[in-house]
């Protein structure tokens, strides 16, 4: 799996993030308090009206994407930013969004 950059996610995802930014930030902060470091992971389906959110450390996250793919990309990200990994189950694609 390769990682590619795009400028935007589907509208239903960006609307969800905008409407829940404070709550998502809180989940992220609680995750870093408990697990030290990691990423906010969202699996979503517009068709099923489903959004599942969880904070994952690198070991947990490796069940979704291999460490060989993720770790080099993660190391290139700014350390002072909060990121959300979104797996769109309908479109079968992934988005990495800076909160």
Summarize this structure as a short list of keywords or feature phrases.
4-stranded mixed beta sheet, 99 residues, alpha+beta
Describe the protein.
The chain has 4 helices and 4 strands, in the order H-H-E-E-H-H-E-E. It has 99 residues and is α+β, with helices and mostly antiparallel strands. It has one domain. A 4-stranded mixed beta sheet has the order 2-1-3-4. A hairpin with a 4-residue loop joins strand 1 and strand 2. The longest helix has 15 residues. The radius of gyration is 13 Å and the shape is globular. The two termini are 23 Å apart. The mean pLDDT is 86.
Helix/strand class: alpha+beta
- The coarse silhouette is globular
DSSP strand tally: 4
- Cα-to-Cα separation, first versus last residue: 23 Å
The strand order across the widest sheet is 2-1-3-4
> Count of helical segments?
4
Largest sheet: 4 strands, mixed
Mean pLDDT: 86
Q: Report Rg.
A: 13 Å
H-E order? HHEEHHEE
Share of helix, binned: 25-40%
Strand percent estimate: 25-35%
Instruction: Identify low-pLDDT runs.
Output: none
How many domains is the backbone divided into?
Answer: 1
Short structural description:
This protein has 99 residues and is α+β, with helices and mostly antiparallel strands. 37% of the residues lie in helices and 26% in strands.
Give the helix/strand layout.
Layout: H1 11-19, H2 21-35, E1 39-45, E2 50-56, H3 58-61, H4 67-75, E3 83-88, E4 93-98
Parallel strand pairs: 1-3
Antiparallel strand pairs: 1-2, 3-4
């Amino acid at each position: 799996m390769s990682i590619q950059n795009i400028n935007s996610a589907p509208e239903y995802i960006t609307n969800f993030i905008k409407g829940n930014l404070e709550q998502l930030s809180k989940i992220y902060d609680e995750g870093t308090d408990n697990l030290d470091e990691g990423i906010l992971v969202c699996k979503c389906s517009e068709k099923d009206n489903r959004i599942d959110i969880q904070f994952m450390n690198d070991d947990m996250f490796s069940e979704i994407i291999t460490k060989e793919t993720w770790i080099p990309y993660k190391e290139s990200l700014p350390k002072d930013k909060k990121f959300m990994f979104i797996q769109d189950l309908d479109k079968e694609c992934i988005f990495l969004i800076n909160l």
